[in-house]
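Recap slide: 1-phosphofructokinase, sequence and predicted structure.
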Amino acid sequence: MIVTVTPNPSLDRTYEVPALDRGEVIRAVAERVDPGGKGVNVSRAVAAAGRRTVAVLPLGGAPGALVADLLHAQGIEVAPVPVGGATRSNIALAESDGVLTKINAPGPELSGQEQEALLETVRRCSRGADWIACCGSLPRGLAPTWYADLVARAHAAGARIALDTSGPALRAALREGPDVVKPNAEELAEAVGRPLATVGDAVKAAEELRGLGARAVLASLGADGQLLVDDAGAWHGSAPVRAVRSDVGAGDASLAGFLIAGGTGPEALASAVAHGAAAVQLPGSVMPSPGDLDPAAVTVTAEVPMDRPLTQPAA
């Protein structure tokens, strides 16, 4: 069973448009409404794989009620923490050439009582969990050390923690030794304070995060695949993608695939790559089901292409 924690969930509306022309009336060719937030997406991918998952998240107002209904419809157990503010609504505009424009609302501010209720709900739901995945940005009211506190409490209870966040929240949590952190290339560059131009640069940055406390680093490099760096060494995984339809939630699908496969070693990396490659070929933030995966197309190697330039260098 995998518990996910999403401190700043959302109701996500995705519109597929031919092109984005400022100042013009744009007619969408398709639209979707999905429950959003990085941890929510992890739960959706875990549920799509037929595994049990519990989504812990603060919910408020009509958008929050709709998020809960949509999650229940996908077979996800919801552990809501009622809050006074309304859950945020986000908009994504997906153009036919694969370019995605996102508008993310800030979300409600959580009171001290609501923050403690969130931590207590995580504690209650994590009994017997294989993993706790803590994902996404922190809402207003939560200090950058909130994730660090959660990791410390979870470890004290004997749980394993996967952390997918960035900036000060990531740096503060590293000292508590999360079992795996999952940055993308931009977040990895931000964490070490320098640009990344090659796959080798990303490996070195991942090793630095391990030096700061992370036990393993699962890094998404976009078109250049994924890296896993842990005590046993470094692996690189990749898979061909026919066409990118939407990359919303692809990293979250990757993390779900990694945890579903045990959360350690090259086999888990292969599962992460398969899930991420499938997700980018689906509309909106649709999470892949087993029928969408192509494990045979995945390549995982310990011979990491250190000199390969990143398709999109991270500043």
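Residues 169 and 223 are 26 Å apart (CA to CA).
The chain has one domain: 3-314.
(End of recap.)
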